[in-house]
Input
Amino acid sequence: MRQILHADFDAFYASIEQRENPKLKGRPVVVGGLPDQRGVVASASYEARSYGVRSAMPTATALKMCPNFELIQPRIAFYKEISDQVLELFHEITSVVEPLSLDEAFLDITDISTGVKSSLKIAYRLKQKVKSTLGLTISVGVASNKSTAKIASSINKPDGFKILKPEEELEFLKPLPVNFLWGVGRKTEEKLHSLGVQTVGDLANQSATWAKNYFGKNGSQLLLRARGIDERPVSLIRVAKSISSETTLLEDSANLDDILVLAYGLCEEVGRKMESEKIFGSTVRVKLRLSDFTTFTRQLSLKDSIQNADEIYKICRVLITKEVKFGRQFRLIGVGVSGFFDKNDSTKNLFLDSGQMNLPDL
Ligand code: TTP
Ligand code: CA
Output
């Protein structure tokens, strides 16, 4: 039986700021954009969360809930340094480490663990090591697969610790709301609720035919996860699912030229990131939010792969132009590229299909 550990920093950006400035300890802290520039919350300390403040909420809304928080502008390069430091600590335990984002990673500890008790010790020591070396807390979960381990780490946040024996996993998953499952976003959650499925256990009891009927090709994965089955290995090579960038307009706009200028800037940013990671993508997606907060994505898949800003922009321009219609005021735009190829696979561009797919947010 595999032993997979998932580690996730608590309130990552906000905790770093509290560590850096002792005056912020115990205080509601928000790292995010300015309210008068329509900024959003990137990370909220747990003190701020007790007022209802959450990531991705407009800072102005957060201020209404908790007028006294300390607002700090993000400094991503510094957070990245800390992310690199924690990866070094993880690598002291095992070389099988898969970072998921700046503050999250999977470690396959099967080869260094002699069983659940031993995994418990490894996980506990890791938490202590991170605390003493970096002055930050991580929440840790251990289970026999990635999906369940990730849920386990999230269950007792902050400073969480949950080690599951293989025979406990199904009982652990059963009562949880379906949105605890990886890949169940708001839309899937709503659909599951409308079908009478509230908990992971409810979902696990459905048949494969049911899952396929209602969720198409994603149905079988959804069902397997609900049944605590996930064979994916902890992968040493991190393949980013998408590279993206988005921006909120200073003022809502219906002007195509203004929107395209901003889109071009985003394409440049995405292209630069792809170049620096030496990757090519084959699907370009734009995310658009209207002034009433209606948000949708439009995408175009190419037969081959692209990387540079002009190529990305060519497709974005087609997608955006179709959407700028009378009466529509835009609030936010995003550009993302996914479907990565190895450089050698890259030839020339050919449009394959276009459509209005319900993809996850950028
Ligand atoms: P999360 O792990 O989702 O959040 P968190 O670490 O702040 O809090 P916790 O895990 O305890 O619930 O995201 C990690 C960092 O990524 C977060 O500190 C800031 C950044 N982030 C954003 O910039 N915008 C977002 O919408 C989210 C969710 C995260
Ligand atoms: Ca986190």
About this structure: The two ends are 35 Å apart (CA to CA). The domain at 242-355 is CATH 3.30.1490.100 (Dna Ligase; domain 1). DSSP finds 13 helices and 13 strands in the chain.
